[in-house]
# Entry
Amino acid sequence: MDDFNDLQKRVIELKRAKNALVLAHYYVPLEVQDVADAVCDSFAMAKKAAAAKEDLIVICGVRFMGEGAKVLSPEKTVLLPALDAGCPMANMVTPEDVQELRALHPEATVMCYVNSPTEVKAVSDVCCTSSSALRIAGSIPGDEVIFVPDKHLGAYVASKVPEKKFYLHEGYCPTHHRVREEDVLAAKRAHPEAVFAVHPECDESVVRHADFVGSTAEILDFARNTPAREILIGTESEIVRRLQREFPEKRIYSVTGAFTCVNMKKITLEALRDCLELEQYKVELTGEQISAARRSLDRMISI
Ligand code: 13P
Ligand code: SF4
# Structure
């Protein structure tokens, strides 16, 4: 407890008093990650929410993560610390978009990235995260896939599963999409010895230069295990902070100075304290929404 500040100590007290399970995504501030019961990528978060024993689950992440937890654990109370922490990429796709794509490609399986609204999961065949996308794309029957909403992750998966034909939606993550090939080339010139690990939400012109491509948790594992002493990171800034703290002897750089998900940063310690104290903000979904979205999420977890 000695290493924690007063606000962190208050959060830990509240967590115990309420018997809450606090799950944090790697992009929320490190100070929040440090008081969570588990820090996860999107796939681990969904699995932990589905297996939770506690009656109260707090999702330190954006709205689709909270809704995903509610779908997988409908009998539990699921709270989000910030009401306005949404994911702009998730908001780029609608159920109507999926229906239009289905009408154009009636034989295709609809694979939806977990960064999508519950209503879109409800009209999709299978969900995926960045760490499970290749495995799921390779295992689904048929040879046509509609992938929504991330055009960059979709293009990456398509390049790795060439036996299937992919139809991509036009969505993208504004945080990862901002990185340009020029940024990577400049960073590589500045740090010629560095290995480069990137998230597949980046543009193909960026991903092309990577030594490793993976989800947030996979990038952390790569950085932990590589013998390289210098690592360039192509994902959100909190991953860089986390690695710099964990490996002070390694040189860890971000590939660009502007790699922040503003929505994840809304999950402050103050917001988490208020969330636990006031039991706000409850994720509310109807039974119909839950059962419609559940199929694609269950399928993701079981593959
Ligand atoms: P992962 O945690 O699955 O790598 O996803 C990254 C992301 O952008 C979450 O919103
Ligand atoms: Fe959405 Fe991108 Fe932020 Fe993840 S990093 S929550 S995909 S905007």
About this structure: The chain has three domains: 6-86+264-283, 90-173, 179-254.
